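Suppose you are handed only these lines of text.
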Amino acid sequence: MASVTKVLLLGSGELGREFVISIKRLGAYVVACDAYAGAPAMQVADAAEVFSMLDGAALAAAIDKHAPDLIVPEVEAIRTEVLKDYEDRGFTVVPSARATIMTMNRDRIREVAATELGLPTSSYRYAETLAEMRAAVAAIGLPCVVKPVMSSSGKGQSTVRTTDAVDAAFAYAAQGMRGDRKRVIVESFIPFDYEITLLTIRTRDGVVFCPPIGHRQERGDYQESWQPAAMSAAAIAAAEAMAKAVVDNLGGYGLFGVEFFVKGEEVIFSELSPRPHDTGMVTLISQNLTEFDLHARAILGLPIPAITQHGPSASAVILADRDAADFSISGLDAALRPSVPGVDVDVRIFNKPTTRPYRRMGVALALARAGDVDIARAAAREAAAKVALSYHG
Ligand SMILES: Nc1ncnc2c1ncn2[C@@H]1O[C@H](COP(=O)(O)OP(=O)(O)O)[C@@H](O)[C@H]1O
Ligand SMILES: [Mg+2]
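From them, the structure of the protein bound to magnesium ion can be written out as follows.
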């Protein structure tokens, strides 16, 4: 076989699928891994392995079997000490084993950002027992946001507004806890004007940024995103400086999704993913290079001479509302006919084998060539609403 870059992708969701397409276009061979067969990235990869990313022995066996040039995590929940072990033995983990370790748990990245780098964050305390939780809430004050340190997509996360709600919030977080650490973070609630993701790419030639992406979250999961987010040049510069400090600390090459809250001119660091970000799916329509293309280029050591915008753009998610294995998706014909002239729309249907309440099954994308972000947002929402899920049986 010709010598090509071999990638082991750990996690094979919709972000992984777009990444596989991007890196395969640059000539890579990809083995896509996830806990279930037929995952979105497996549909477009060269080979697949089915195992839990939290199963250390299975993860090590997959690395041994495929001897990849690049180990590329697509999810947060991975047996990261195995990644560290393989990095120590000369394998390349994207962006770095340290980045995966520090971002898998909220408390670790918070210590890097707030304590080591001195970035502004919400005030916070940790709790491992109900008594500690009550003390943490008393110290932080109400309202506050409670999250398991190891969780994603809003799982186990809640906002506590009254003292009565503290015990239930702890129980909910404990139940939403992923992995083996029973610890929650209690954060002061930030009454932000808006929140953004700053896609930050660490390359051999330095750190580059995409224009800020605005997004709206519900239940801790993103509903729509748009680019560019209206933000002052000074606020963008502040966010870029913080993002650069964090990604330089974490090391390695690749794209990071750095999240900030913005209140007036104040920019507050929230968290980050050392990989493409779900809200960054808007770049599938907004930019010359998508976030997946940028990740691929950065990790292959290829240049990124310019990131250019096609115009104000938006994405809107297409969600399921129940558990089903027998379902179909229709309405693409209507979805792909925008009612507003001068707008391009597109969709990505992820082909996940089963649905769950709120499971993301696709995304609608819109580009308002001559309009503004509000037109793009309305067009993306309209397209998403026209895609219909039908459940059978
Ligand atoms: N301290 C906070 N104050 C206000 N809103 C918050 C706070 N923390 C989280 N949120 C809201 O919840 C969303 C999800 O929280 P986040 O910490 O990003 O968790 P996840 O890892 O699940 O994305 C954020 O995008 C924001 O909308
Ligand atoms: Mg987040």
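What can we learn from it? The chain has four domains: 6-93, 123-188, 201-308, 310-393. The two ends are 46 Å apart (CA to CA).
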